[in-house]
Write a sequence for this structure.
């Protein structure tokens, strides 16, 4: 035993130090995230070789106790799973992150359940054994009673507890009680962790200025001077003398637009209410019950953000992000995201506080929701239902094709869609002179993603244009609101 | 030759009848015209070429091919700008734009143009209303309200005023603006001359107003609003009862509003008592019984448990008992979970077989299998024409209690 301790002291100390470091990095990553991505990548990646080393140690033929193996394996699962989720998040593999997080939670539930069952089973056997011994040698164990015929047992680990009912079904009832209480506790912890808000954060628009106008396609005037024939002036052929300026203008070359796209007065394309550090970000809402992470991240909505930057010359963030609805509460008024994106095709399950946060975000923080139906009529109904809860005094209306949102910066002559899951018309919620929610019924996110869901080029191009319009509209309206607030104060 | 002349006479007779029919129907067609259609009088003023072009556009509009229809209306406007139907073509072009989801264009370049260029035409009135409805369709509620109010002020007697009032009431309902809802419903109920086109809107408004008044225990006002829709006497009284049910029940269910509910119930009972005919002929008895049943229903909704049996006793005294009245009485006992008394009432049925059947069924509702089976066996003896029917009921009784073996034996 002393030899074991001597051998293991160094690796144990090293592992403990690493785990401490890992914990600090994970907490920092969850709450603040100011370190460079490479630091996170390095610290989190080390967990894999470290874990493998411990796994090798525990599986060596000399190490026999199964419980120890299982304990190490369970701990490693937790370590690897958390590291994988954060690594995928840092390197913007949003969709995979969602997948790993979801399945990992399910696996964690099962692993926890296995441990609970093992523990309860062991304790039950222990109590039963003691009771049998007590019946056999009552005097030897008279110092402690384990539920005789007349005493009431309260311990839930003892299957003879009185509240497990009929003696025939006591074991079954104990198992059911264990399962129910474990599931309940797991759910409570899960809800508690997912409803924590985190620290305050800010969203700033890119500074600049410009006009919220439709992008014209100006042409560069190219002078083509006709060739002159030089002939003998004494020739018998008569030529009409041409004026020097008689040239034909050809309007055939599309050039860069001359004005900046934006809102307010400032240098460069951007927004009057912005700051030099500000960037246009694409934030997706995470919600319980469905696949919020459809086409998320690289090869998904990142393509849209990139296209937005390319088409408007606005500064954009280097990756798309996601936030839980409760996290929207972390943004202060005047520094909150002008637009959040939401998609999916399954259920949307929101709590009362989430409804409240969303209403506050839309009304008080001047935000806007851009929702895309990712694939079902059910999602359409769900979304309309939650919006009727959030904004009971506003009814959705079809967004006109000649509205500003469909005309600036690009004219959208028809609503482009991949598949009309929720109809063929975009719906909007209009309040106080602006759209506070834009609902696209036909999976626009699929058209943005790599491969463009196989739709025709003119459709996915129109989808990019529509996406650009909605993002620009939200930011321009937000900037206008910031200006008005400044003037007001 | 003779045959041909006879045929001509027949044809001329038919034409005469057709002319008479059209003359009789012309006021109706005048009333029936909608905002988006042109009167026959105006059609008849058009030249053949104009009519032809407009009909082409109308055909596409009816087929909901709005893009082509808009082009055809535009063509009409450019060809026949001075025509009598130019305003109409502009209006329809604007409606096509609305259908094509170009609502801003419709308002700025369509409806507004109709109002500016043809201010005295009927189409300008319609355009004024459509500006409001288009704004409403775009979610611009303040602009919609402004437009509707302008229409109400300017064209108070026109059909568009009714539509505008309804639009304002709809917006107010969404915004939970009780004051406007009340004002608009009052306007539609009491101030609008009803005709075939607007009566439905006015009727709905009167019903909504009545319910609003019932919730505020303003019984007389509610009756007045319903009286604008239903004729005095039995129809009105029946509808008063029908619209009273939900408000009375909800007011009495909540302890905060119970006093208001009690007041409403007292006035309602007095009203129904006053309506009971004094004559005792068969028709008066039928109506009287019905009104007394309304009184019993009001007592039941107001939770006057002691009063309900007294009212049914009064009905029995005045008009004698019939099975329908007893059924209602027993149903009330059942709603109070007093199955014993309900069975006593069922046993008083004139139709003994039906009465016993109800008794057995009430046992089944209480999951008392054995007494139910006993009553069904009694019925087998009484109703010797249908023994199998009662046997099947016994089986169903056992099955409802999951006693499948007994059901099979039965």
């Amino acid at each position: 035993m002393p030899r074991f301790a001597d051998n293991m002291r160094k690796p144990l100390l090293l592992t403990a130090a690493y785990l401490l470091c890992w914990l600090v990095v994970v907490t920092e990553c969850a709450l603040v995230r100011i370190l460079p991505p490479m630091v996170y990548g390095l610290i989190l990646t080390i967990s894999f070789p470290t874990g493998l080393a411990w796994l090798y140690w525990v599986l060596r033929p000399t190490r026999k106790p199964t419980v120890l193996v299982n304990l190490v394996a369970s701990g490693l699962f937790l370590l690897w799973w958390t590291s994988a989720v954060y690594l995928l998040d840092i390197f913007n593999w949003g969709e995979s992150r969602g997948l790993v997080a979801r399945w990992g939670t399910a696996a964690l539930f099962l692993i926890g359940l296995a441990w609970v069952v093992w523990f309860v089973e062991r304790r039950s056997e222990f109590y039963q054994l003691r009771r049998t011994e007590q019946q056999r040698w009552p005097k030897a164990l008279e110092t402690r009673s384990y539920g005789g015929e007349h005493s009431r047992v309260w311990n839930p680990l003892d299957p003879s507890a009185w509240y497990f009912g009929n003696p025939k079904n006591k074991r079954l009832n104990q198992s059911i009680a264990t399962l129910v209480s474990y599931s309940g506790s797991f759910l409570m912890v899960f809800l508690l962790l997912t409803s924590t808000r985190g620290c305050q954060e800010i969203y700033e628009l890119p500074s600049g200025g410009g006009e919220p106008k439709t992008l014209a396609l100006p042409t560069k005037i190219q002078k083509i001077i006709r060739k002159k024939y030089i002939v003998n002036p004494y020739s018998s052929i008569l030529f009409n003398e041409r004026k020097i300026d008689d040239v034909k203008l050809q309007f055939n070359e599309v050039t860069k637009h001359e004005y900046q796209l934006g809102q307010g007065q400032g240098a460069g394309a951007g927004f009057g209410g912005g700051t030099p550090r500000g960037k246009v970000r694409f934030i997706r809402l995470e919600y319980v019950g469905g696949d919020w992470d459809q086409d998320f991240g690289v090869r998904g909505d990142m393509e849209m953000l990139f296209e937005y930057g390319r088409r408007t010359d606005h500064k954009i963030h280097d990756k798309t992000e996601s936030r839980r609805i409760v996290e929207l509460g972390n943004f202060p008024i005047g520094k909150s995201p002008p637009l959040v994106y939401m998609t999916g095709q399954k259920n949307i399950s929101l709590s009362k506080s989430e409804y409240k946060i969303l209403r506050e975000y839309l009304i008080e923080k001047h935000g806007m929701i851009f929702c895309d139906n990712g694939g079902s009529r059910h999602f359409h109904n769900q979304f309309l239902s939650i919006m009727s809860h959030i904004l009971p005094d506003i009814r959705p209306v079809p967004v006109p094709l000649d509205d500003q949102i469909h005309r600036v910066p690009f004219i959208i002559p028809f609503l482009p869609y991949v598949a009309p899951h929720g109809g063929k018309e975009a719906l909007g919620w209009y309040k106080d002179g602006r759209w506070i929610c834009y609902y696209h019924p036909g999976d626009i996110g699929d058209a943005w993603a790599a491969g463009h869901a196989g739709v025709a080029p003119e459709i996915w191009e129109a989808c990019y244009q529509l996406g650009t319009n909605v993002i620009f509209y939200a930011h321009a309206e937000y900037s206008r609101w910031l200006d008005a607030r400044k003037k007001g104060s | 030759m003779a045959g041909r002349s006879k045929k001509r006479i027949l044809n001329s007779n038919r034409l005469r009848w057709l002319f008479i029919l059209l003359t009789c129907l012309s006021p109706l067609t005048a009333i029936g015209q909608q905002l988006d259609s042109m009167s026959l009088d105006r059609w008849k003023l058009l030249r053949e070429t104009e009519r032809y072009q407009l009909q082409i556009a109308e055909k596409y509009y009816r087929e909901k091919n709005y893009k082509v229809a808009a082009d055809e209306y535009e063509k009409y406007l450019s060809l026949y700008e001075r025509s009598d139907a130019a305003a109409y073509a502009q209006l329809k072009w604007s409606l096509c734009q609305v259908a094509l989801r170009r609502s801003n264009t419709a308002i700025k370049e369509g409806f507004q143009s109709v109002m500016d260029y043809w201010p005295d035409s009927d189409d300008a009135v319609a355009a004024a209303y459509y500006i409001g409805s288009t704004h409403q369709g775009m979610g611009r509620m303040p602009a919609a309200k402004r437009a509707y109010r302008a229409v109400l002020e300017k064209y108070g007697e026109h059909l568009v005023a009714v539509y505008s009032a309804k639009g304002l009431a709809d917006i107010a309902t969404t915004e939970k603006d009780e004051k406007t809802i009340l004002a608009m419903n009052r306007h539609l109920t009491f101030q609008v001359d009803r005709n075939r086109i607007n009566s439905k809107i006015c009727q709905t408004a009167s019903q909504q107003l009545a319910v609003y008044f019932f919730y505020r225990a303003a019984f007389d006002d509610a009756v007045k609003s319903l009286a604008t829709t239903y004729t005095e006497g039995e129809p009105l009284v029946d509808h008063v009862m029908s619209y009273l049910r939900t408000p009375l029940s909800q007011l009495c269910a909540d302890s905060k509003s119970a006093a208001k509910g009690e007041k409403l119930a007292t006035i309602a009972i007095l009203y129904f008592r006053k309506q009971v005919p004094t004559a005792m002929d068969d028709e008066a008895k039928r109506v009287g019984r019905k009104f007394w049943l309304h009184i019993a229903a009001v007592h039941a909704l107001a939770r006057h448990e002691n009063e309900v049996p007294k009212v049914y006793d009064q009905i029995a005294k005045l008009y004698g008992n019939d099975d329908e009245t007893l059924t209602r009485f027993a149903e009330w006992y059942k709603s109070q979970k007093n199955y014993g008394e309900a069975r006593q009432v069922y046993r008083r049925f004139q139709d003994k077989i039906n009465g016993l059947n109800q008794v057995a069924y009430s046992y089944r509702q209480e999951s008392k299998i054995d007494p139910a089976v006993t009553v069904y066996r009694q019925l087998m003896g009484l109703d010797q024409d249908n023994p199998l029917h009662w046997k099947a009921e016994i089986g169903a009784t056992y099955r409802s209690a999951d006693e499948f073996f007994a059901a099979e034996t039965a």
Q: What stands out?
A: Residues 288 and 351 of chain A are 9 Å apart (CA to CA). Chain A has two domains: 2-191, 283-488. The interface with chain B takes residues 393-403, 425, 428-431 of chain A (CB under 8 Å).
